[in-house]
């Protein structure tokens, strides 16, 4: 394992220390490093909290700031945070209008959130993201994984909370955006969890993992590496098929790098994916290309498509000022 | 009894720490490669409190240990093992006999099922915990329980995962032992070892 | 070689197509794809043009926009652009106040720029960046390489041009910022040039290349991988030593990922490097952490330190709105 | 003569294309791994114009080819080989004899030196071009020129690079052949092969 670290045990704390120091104008660290929160809390709005295993940076701490999250709870690498983190964050950022958690659909995340919710005092709601179409949901009762589409939900609901939507409205909006969002990923290499010390899986020199998750979970199947256009066609095909009806929709296309893929390839994938959407009759009205929901050092990317309506497009465009996402200012 | 509890915590922790790599390996195959470090982090946190735990009644010690697991582990195994330990502690009572232990264990497993919305046959820790609980209730010997635990973990290999991260793999989850089933066996064997040297 | 591409020959054109489509609100592509320019050109200001081999994205095209570059000329991967690209860009974005090229110090870049300057009609000035302290400059008359510090020069001079500085003032400022800037890099893996099809160099499982360039050029020496704190100490040590006098300075610290390094490690390096600067008595007054001047898929990072004064700090803070850098809006 | 020029462009291009991988390999060791694709891209662009070039006088054809190299190659080799071809074309005159060719070649090399601010002994293409030019001027046979070219490239192996990307390596540049020296040899050998079959 080759990583720029000092010791496996301190990766998370040192990385968080660097993060809050580099972005001290936007964020600050909670007690015992349990959460990252906005430096300047806002009263009277719904408090938006997310969290999850670390190793997906900038998700979630990179999305804390004006127009997006109020706090993020970082778990150990690929391990959901614990209920005490969620409770501590909620206590600190609750602005009197309720707390809304955005949780990616993994049993660990869901159970830890449920324990936190059971212990919480005030009103708490939850949005569960499950945008990954790689795995057929009907067969496996855990449902689908929450992946890069989570970023889209956090952005749009974040803007709504900032604009004064109440807890119920934020929750309903988040569910709606999640349902309008589909993703699929592909890996060219495995990630390496620091504590494990070696790659989670091994791919041959000419193989890719189609439908990979953001923790290096295996996906649909392992297949020979194909040209980018074919990869984009399969992924967009799966997403569009899953949407069912789609023609004429305005969509957001997010090309998300997994951490080890250069921007050059991400933009090339964007070009190929956008041309696929053109063919399917969807209009790419908004776009984002970059490392947003990563999987440590994994090479590969995911494509996310969100169907937009007037309201969600406006909220996507709304001012955001976080470490990793900034516009409209 | 307090002395036994302390030895149980010590032995379970030692075994989990020693098996961390094996558990991570299993979790890498059909999960996300963190079960070993999760369990190690949790049990080391429990062990760090041993002095404090030794001063408590067994039920209280187990509840405290369960809470530590919930607060230190995260992931799926944190709430599940945390719930197991907490409920066990709550149900155990002051000076339980074997039947009392069996009842408390059964109640703890029900709590795990409720927390995990899960059942046996779904390729999880329950596929070890449930048969072990049944054996305990039906008066099986420690040796029999040991055999049932290890066979039950082996029986998860051909299973299709319906719960946990491995469920995302569908058919590809077949052919691997469930990491949580394995960690359950390790903890159960540690407990049996302590009880047998005592016996 | 595992890359998300269709064919080696079309990597650049497809990637550029994706880039300008994803950021159509900011940039547009020049004729024959010779350059990327601001969508809304500004008259009356000094036109800032940069360029260089591709494979360092977001440098330079990602820095085209308000407050930074007017155009960027992308060469083939790791190959400087050609004079016709520079001439075409200059003709298009010249706003009547002269053209200033920012050139990284490589002979190829310098010679191609010189040929363009010889063919140019209007007034043309040049800033040469050479911030890499990895290689002792005294011995080798090519001088030092221009690396991640180039981004700092482009940001500060870009703000000056936007604020109305004339050609001479922009040029003088750029030279001053370059002289106040030092960088050093380390690689944990090689990059793979698409056309070459295999890694440029090979490192053992426990080796790193200390002082690596941004084209996978070997650096000072190949050594066993050490903890992040020691790597930061060596790099900051080399930079501070090269500055000579430094105590009490306000500095900008830039931790630049080479493309294959996860954000988690970059922030950890920031933490370690910032603490080294604290020890040396330099105050980290500004910071940037991310993939800015990459080397395709190389794992590793560079550290850049720029000594700031009131003017350059103000220009660093000034509004910038590009694909890759945004603040102050 | 026009027919010879066309065969020269054809042969040089074919040889460069065939050697692209070798050149990239050399450039990977002490540069940035693009010399092969640079030269291939440039010569293929020249070859794409062959019909047009065949209609031009040799000097004009060389000037045009040089301009194509400048506009298509980039990097260090683009301006340098472009300058070499352009100056050669400019100096060649209408119907040059061997002495005229030698003078033009010498002038072209001076232009390369000026463009590159470089000299022999710095581990660059000049370490092949300059001795070949000297041999040409001193009346050496084609066979002698061939030998000098290949020996000169080999002589760059132990050199310390003072110019080009390899100079950033300092001592570590020693022990590798300079890629531009090698591409010069390949082009010179291609020219000699054409001239010898003609002779
Ligand atoms: N819903 C569930 N019910 C029972 N056990 C479960 C459930 N989900 C996961 N598990 C158990 O947890 C183990 C995984 O634990 P761990 O790797 O620590 O957490 P995570 O899957 O969040 O990374 C699985 O091997 C399985 O035995
Ligand atoms: N200043 C110079 N003078 C003469 N030749 C040079 C000079 N700089 C580089 N070269 C030649 O150019 C070759 C490298 O060409 P190439 O790899 O195409 O360009 P780059 O170095 O820009 O990637 C070197 O091997 C060397 O022979
Ligand atoms: Mg996990
Ligand atoms: Mg796991
Ligand atoms: Mg080059
Ligand atoms: Mg080169």
TrEMBL record, chains A, C:
Stored Gene3D superfamilies: Dihydroxyacetone kinase, domain 1, Dihydroxyacetone kinase, domain 2
The protein's Enzyme Commission number: 2.7.1.121
Superkingdom in the source lineage: Bacteria
Span of domain DhaK: 7-327
Keyword presence, Transferase: yes
One biological process term in Gene Ontology: glycerol catabolic process
Protein name per its UniProtKB record: phosphoenolpyruvate--glycerone phosphotransferase
From TrEMBL, chains B, D:
Domain DhaL as annotated: residue spans: 3-193
Gene3D superfamilies, per the entry: 1.25.40.340
Keyword check for DNA-binding: no
Keyword Transferase tagged: yes
Keywords noted in UniProt: Kinase, Transferase
Pfam families hit by this protein: Dak2
A Gene Ontology term for the protein's cellular component: cytosol
NCBIfam families: dha_L_ycgS (TIGR02365)
A GO MF label: glycerone kinase activity
Organism: Prosthecodimorpha staleyi
InterPro entries per UniProt: DhaK_L_YcgS, DhaL_dom, DhaL_dom_sf, Dihydroxyacetone_Kinase
Annotated GO biological process: glycerol catabolic process
UniProt protein name: Dihydroxyacetone kinase subunit L
Cited PROSITE patterns: DHAL (PS51480)
